[in-house]
Specification:
Strand order of the largest sheet: 1-2
Distance between the termini: 73 Å
Radius of gyration: 25 Å
Number of strands: 2
Number of helices: 3
Shape: elongated
Largest sheet: 2 strands, antiparallel
Length: about 110
């Protein structure tokens, strides 16, 4: 864990407020040690089992003409690409015997 103490504050043991992280009086090393917002959001999404690489699909209502963008899970099977989707797909493969492929048709006698 990153220690966010500022030597300039009284006592030196008070954490830096988020407003002061963008302040130039905060040492650069402390500011650069902060995680990027994208990394934080990605970790939270992983913890909650949400896709971290959603595919945006545009949907148009044919009656009203209204267009909206819907984010659909990527469906990755590799843990390195999207851990939540890979976990979900692994569970699906285990639950459905033979995978999701259709069963071959048997020929019926005439």
């Amino acid at each position: 864990m990153i220690d966010l103490t500022d030597a300039h504050q009284a006592g030196g043991d008070q954490p830096i407020s988020p407003a002061r992280l963008n302040d130039r009086s905060t040492p650069r090393a402390v500011r650069m040690a902060q995680p990027l917002a994208r990394d934080v959001v990605e970790e939270i999404a992983k913890q909650h089992g949400v896709c971290i690489r959603p595919v945006p699909l545009r949907r148009q209502d044919i009656l009203t003409g209204q267009v909206e963008v819907i984010d659909v899970p990527c469906g990755a099977t590799l843990e390195s690409k999207c851990p939540p989707c890979a976990k979900r797909n692994r569970q699906l493969r285990r639950a459905v015997p033979g995978g999701l492929a259709p069963r071959p048709r048997t020929r019926e006698p005439p």
